[in-house]
Amino acid sequence: MLDKLLYIDPGTGSMLFSIIIGITGVVVFGIRALMIKLKFVVSGGRAKNTSSDTLPICIFSEGKRYWNVFAPVCDEFEKRGKDIWYLTASADDPALSRDYKHVHAEFIGEGNKAISRMNLIKADLVLSTTPSLDVFQWKRSKGAKYYVHLPHMANDITTYKMFGLDFYDAVLLSGQYQIDEIRRLEELRGIPAKDLKLAGIPYMDKMLERLKGAEVKAADKKDPVVLLAPSWGNNGILTAYGAPFIENLIKTGYRIIIRPHPQSFTSEKELMDELMAKFPESDKIRWNRDPDNFDVLNEADILISDFSGVVFDFSLVFNKPIIYTDPSSDWTQYDCSWDENELWTYTILPKIGRLLTKDNFDNIGKLVDDCLNGSDAKELADGRDLARSQTWCNIGHGAEKVTDYLLIKYDEITKEPEEKEG
Length: 422
Description:
The chain is α/β, with parallel strands linked by helices. The chain has 2 domains: 18-201 and 397-421, Rossmann fold; 208-391, Rossmann fold, CATH 3.40.50.2000. The protein is 43% helix and 14% strand. The chain is built from 17 helices and 13 strands. The strands form 2 sheets. The chain has a 7-stranded parallel β-sheet. A 6-stranded parallel β-sheet has the order 10-9-8-11-12-13, with helices on both faces. Helix 3 (67-80) packs across helix 16. The termini are far apart. 38% of the residues are buried.
């Protein structure tokens, strides 16, 4: 009888555990916040109309995989001598080992622990690239005044899960079509208009800056490097086309680099083991698992991928052609399902690359040749210029624009009432 009375079902137990973690976290975080708030004031940062345990400006990062998105912004704050707090859910986030004076990085726990901390945070302004604020577990904190979203992609903003950005106060974008997409959603749903600004894409700016200082990898017309970098899952190239496609690639005689999505080695381990055993490394094929994809993108002459953001990094930053698989998908659970307009991604892909299908992958060699040296090469180069103009504003200045916005907005939301009236 006593056992039954003391029994807690797993769902309730998980909820209670999250609550306990949240309460504990907010007490500890409050003490730490008071200490770093004092550092903020001493360092010359402005802190008007904020309680002693309120962070002025902070970043929430789901983990180290988003460091490339936030690093340029953190560097810009450091450069200007302005303080910002970087709260990460990864214990090995690169930010934690940086020698910053004005970027205050802190590991706030993984998973539910990090979310619990953010749900109770006191901050004037929160910047994040995580969608679905106030939709699922991550809730708007009553102690936070303003939430700003910074995308981690260079394509349609409506490819987030449904209501992904509805409860943000502002979104920093890189193309006018993205603004139009959000405005159409706001009108359809009857929700308040967010503050939308064209800022740019800081992480792509950083890649471009890095490229300018990197060793030039001249394309070898006789022996080009073909990079196969698919997503994971049922629609990924390695799952959908498998060994026969790799065999066709090898037959071209070109140098082949295969870079599976990191998740493939967890969720599709059996497939990866099978393919790597069947196609061992040689002078014509190698497998790449570098944490940083810059060098392999720089080395490749052409990219073969599917519906992945890497196609835009490769084509727009490195200015090289792509071959892509059919991006059709079931969008019923996504924001774009509300919009009758065709996705920008669907309209631009045929202009920057060529479509790979099961009907033409036997002729992959000709497809590669046409993209690199044939009649398609000039057309695809023009398409890349068009895509760049439509989806990458303020090239080279994205971090500056994001930082400008955050500092100006912080001043606006922390003004004393009499200042606002005046």
